[in-house]
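Tip: read the tokens left to right.
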């Protein structure tokens, strides 16, 4: 019977082997210690402040900014009324507040 080495898990960020001495676990995956940082702000993470989304790690603050609820009622007051589309966070879709109804819509 031929020798078959043990399967060593790969880091989702750099796709290299992760050995037991350097592993960090989040989202059911094993990461290198130097790859275990926020994908937006670059802050190094630990088990209490990390969130995983689509094989990318985020700190709780950046995860909320990128994937959390948006709009009035989630920020409180006039500070949450902004025309920011989130482009600096990598968001490509934005909701338009322009009416689409042909009867009450924008007049040409």
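Filled-in amino acids:
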């Amino acid at each position: 019977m031929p020798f078959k080495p043990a399967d060593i898990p790969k880091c989702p960020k750099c796709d290299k082997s992760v050995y037991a001495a350097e592993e960090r676990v989040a989202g059911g995956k094993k990461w290198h210690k130097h790859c275990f940082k926020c994908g937006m702000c670059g802050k190094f993470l630990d088990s209490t402040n990390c969130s995983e989304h689509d094989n990318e790690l985020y700190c709780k603050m950046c995860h909320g900014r990128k994937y959390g609820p948006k709009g009035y009622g989630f920020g409180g007051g006039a500070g949450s009324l902004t025309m920011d589309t989130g482009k600096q966070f990598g968001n490509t879709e934005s909701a338009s507040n322009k009416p689409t109804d042909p009867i009450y819509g924008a007049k040409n």
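The chain has a mean pLDDT of 77. DSSP finds one helix and four strands in the chain.
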